[in-house]
Amino acid sequence: MTRRAVVRGVGHYLPDRIVPNSEFVESLDTSDEWIRSRSGIERRHFAAEGQTTSDLATRAARAALKDAGLQADDLDTIILATSTADLTFPSAATMVQAALGMQQGYAFDLQAVCAGFIFALANANALIVSGQAQRVLVIGAETFSRIMDWEDRTTCVLFGDGAGALVLEAQSGDGNNTDRGILAVDLHSDGRFKDLLFVDGGVSTGTSGYLRMQGKEVFRHAVEKLATTAETALATLGLSGKDVDWIVPHQANLRIIRATAQKMGVPMDHVVVTVQDHGNTSAASIPLALSISKERGQIKQGDLLLLEAIGGGLTWGSVVLRW
Ligand code: ACO
Asked: Which residue ranges form the domains of the chain, and what is each CATH number?
């Protein structure tokens, strides 16, 4: 018997306010046509005044627990992937723990920008497989609208707010590729690329700062690194793109999603795409896409999923998961 981290529940939350591309035209030299054709984004959700990342995360967590048929007291651990925590400390994860009324176990944030949910899944898998945890709530939640420079048209039209969550549970498998749960993980970072994508604030500056991105360069790294990490994770199982039922990519740009799928030889009708409705929600984008694709009836129990993401750092990686 092999101990596996298996998905027991999934859920998401999106703030009420939906902002179409046309809203940016009033204040910026941009157009709906430019944003759609360069990124695939049509609209995004923005958090209300005073609504924080931990608020969004708590709502997504409740939805995932409901889907799992579990209570907060059934959890050992909460890992919250975010780069937009409410405060410098304590972690947004401990705020979610309190909001859920969970008085046992422990909660912590994990920061790997847009690859955060992949890194969080990998860590949750390690806790479960090693026997340190039985059930882990893994959340991706962001309020990137708080770190946008609204005068920078090259970034502010691309991002949105939201949250998604999975409940992972220890179950036993046979130790082969037909098991449900996380089957393979591949993680990377390379700090030499810091200047391609960063926030120019933090404790060293006394301000929370704004996101800065060299979009063209990030794009170039994304297509190359995402296909490579995906192929590496699949190869550890003796698999390739043709074996995958669904690619669930980080939702940053439709052109990156298409180019990566093409490199892997996976047709677009096997790729989950939600970027048109949410923009780039950083660490929230993959759990949001998982939850919405389940609602759409795309992902079904037993399907083989390849999740992949790249973000500031640079950080990147992938997870192979049987749903
Ligand atoms: N409206 C109109 N024109 C614009 C806008 C806008 N909103 N933004 C930029 N432009 C202009 C530029 O100024 C440039 O004009 P110029 O040629 O006169 O200089 C022109 O459009 C083309 O700009 P490019 O940057 O070359 O456009 P590109 O086709 O590369 O698309 C984009 C830009 C969408 C940012 C793309 O590069 C991209 O998606 N990059 C990757 C982003 C990403 O994946 N991030 C993931 C990680 S995010 C994270 O970790 C937080």
From this structure: 2-173 (3.40.47.10), 181-322 (3.40.47.10)
